[in-house]
Design a protein that fits this description.
Helix content of chain B: 25-40%
Low-confidence stretches of chain A: none
Number of domains of chain B: 2
Strand order of the largest sheet of chain B: 2-1-3-4
Radius of gyration of chain A: 22 Å
Distance between the termini of chain B: 92 Å
Distance between the termini of chain A: 40 Å
Number of strands of chain A: 0
Largest sheet of chain B: 4 strands, antiparallel
Oligomer: heterodimer
Low-confidence stretches of chain B: none
Number of strands of chain B: 4
Largest sheet of chain A: none
Structural class of chain A: mainly alpha
Shape of chain B: elongated
Helix content of chain A: 55-70%
Shape of chain A: globular
Radius of gyration of chain B: 28 Å
Chain lengths: 306, 197
């Protein structure tokens, strides 16, 4: 029988191999592309209100902001100071980052732009942030280190289209890439659900089954209509305990290969339902990007050989 | 007599350690980030090493924009509907009232686009703990109202609320609920005539 020490050594070795064995770049490229497109939608929604939220004549003038923010964080404001030009720069960085990630144009450079835009508006006004902003900042940061060039990439498609004859027979295939950025983002998703589940489990209304019923009464979150059938105490209990079970179960069940796809599909249904009933801008969409990192693409024989 | 010599790690041994750890930097990075992010997001009561880990990891997480929280509706969701209103009384005696976050009254697209308004006004501006935001917002409102042709003499910020019912039925949805709203003026500013001109 294995001793606890031997078990720990074995688990460490398995973890080490999981992090260091190179991976197929396609899940990271799918993640990059979907995150890029969604970050553009996020930017588009924020765009008209940027002067109000981030400007010197906005709701948070520099003097008040300085009082509230004690620490230093990397942002474009380190270069510009409190300047209206920063808003234009954030817009440009957001556009370059979003389009670059979406279309695979200099993806690592694009990830840096998207990250810098997101950390900048996050630093300038923390009171307007939603959880989706966390997902953009974190995702873009680790994409700076991820190699996804050549997969889901517009420049690659264009090169193939125009120079197909010249490239025939010597088309570069996407080889395996370092796994750690993908692994860190996969673990990030588990941390998200685990933390959300644990926080909820500490609340009395989550434990007595009334929490979702209360949330569905709040006008500020109300979105599309839902059938009356859902608005009963029994359904409130079912939805409350179902939410707890899903959030606490996901970080465990996702590691079981046979359950992975059902868990991801259950998660998609869960977030689609939330997006229908609740008005929480982009979070339900952005989290689906992190789901793509768990998909295991089939490798054909030629790419295995490469 | 045999003297005890101080133990010094042999150069070969430390080089061996370096050689075995160096290629494992991705594993060390992933494990460290996972621990740091987990600690950062946990309630202090549920994770005793949190203060020590956050003290070390907090700086880099904040600096690089990797800080995070996943505690929406936790530990309990709010039990009251909230709105914030601004009321402007002009120097000619006319007044202008605007609900800033009456999300139910907005169309589907508008309430989606203005989700950050809900965050700012309902979750932060209305709170007594965040009174430092009140006057800057009143000044911002005066600048915008003047652009629209108003001449504000007084600005009032009003919070509206009505409690949710612990019982739960279709009649309790915000768009059909009939319970009365309560209100409170939480900030009033008499705008000096020459302010900002």
């Amino acid at each position: 029988m294995m001793t606890p020490w031997a078990g720990m050594v074995r688990a460490t070795a398995v973890f080490d191999q999981w992090v260091r064995d190179p991976v197929d770049p396609r899940p990271l490229a799918w993640f990059r592309s979907w995150l890029g497109l969604l970050s553009l939608v996020n930017l588009w929604l924020l765009w008209p209100d940027m002067p109000m939220w981030l400007g010197n004549d906005g709701v948070l003038p520099p003097a008040t902001h300085r009082e509230l923010m004690g620490d230093t964080r990397i942002s474009i404001f380190m270069l510009t100071g409190y300047s209206e030009a920063a808003i234009g720069l954030i817009r440009c960085l957001g556009l370059a980052g979003g389009f670059g990630l979406w279309l695979g144009i200099f993806p690592r450079c694009a990830a840096f732009c998207a990250w810098l835009a997101a950390v900048s508006y996050s630093w300038r006004n923390m009171d307007i942030l939603h959880s989706g902003d966390n997902l953009i900042r974190i995702g873009a940061f680790f994409l700076i280190f991820a190699r996804t060039d050549g997969v889901l990439s517009l420049p690659h498609v264009v090169r193939r289209w125009f120079f197909s004859q010249a490239l025939s027979g010597s088309q570069p295939r996407a080889g395996l890439v370092p796994a750690w950025p993908q692994r860190i983002l996969q673990l990030q998703l588990c941390i998200l659900y685990l933390a959300a589940g644990i926080w909820k489990a500490t609340g009395p209304t989550w434990r007595n089954g009334t929490a979702v019923g209360l949330v569905l009464q709040l006008g500020e979150f109300q979105r599309f209509p839902i059938p009356d059938f859902f608005l009963t105490p029994v359904m409130s209990q079912l939805m409350t305990y179902g939410t707890l079970a899903f959030e606490l179960g996901f970080p465990v069940l996702i590691w079981i290969p046979k359950l992975r796809l059902p868990v991801l599909l259950a998660g998609l249904a869960f977030h689609a339902g939330l997006d229908w009933v609740m008005n929480v801008q982009m979070f339900q969409w952005l989290i689906t990007a992190y789901y793509l990192l768990w998909l295991q693409p089939r490798r054909d024989a030629s790419s295995d050989a490469s | 007599m045999k003297k005890n010599r101080p133990h010094i790690a042999s150069p070969q041994r430390s080089r061996g350690l370096q050689e075995s750890l160096l290629p494992r930097w991705p594993t060390i990075l992933v494990a460290s980030y996972t621990l740091a992010a987990f600690s950062w997001t946990m309630p202090a009561s549920m994770f005793p090493p949190k203060p020590a880990i956050d003290r070390v990891a907090g700086g880099p997480l904040l600096m690089l924009g990797l800080w995070q929280s996943w505690d929406m509706f936790s530990p309990d969701p709010r039990t009251a509907d909230i709105c914030v209103e601004i009321q402007c009384t002009n120097r000619d005696g006319t007044s202008d009232r605007r609900m800033l976050t009456d999300m139910v009254a907005m169309g589907y697209y508008e309430r989606w686009q203005k989700d950050r308004w809900r965050k700012y006004f309902n979750d932060h501006l209305r709170l007594d703990d965040e009174r430092s935001l009140w006057q800057p917002f009143a000044e911002y409102a005066v600048r915008r109202l003047r652009e629209e042709g108003d001449d504000p003499a007084t600005i009032e910020l009003i919070r509206w609320w009505r409690n949710c019912d612990p019982a739960f039925s279709p009649e309790l949805r915000a768009d059909v609920r009939q319970t009365p709203w309560q209100s409170y003026v939480f900030h009033r500013w008499g705008v000096p005539r020459e302010w900002g001109r």
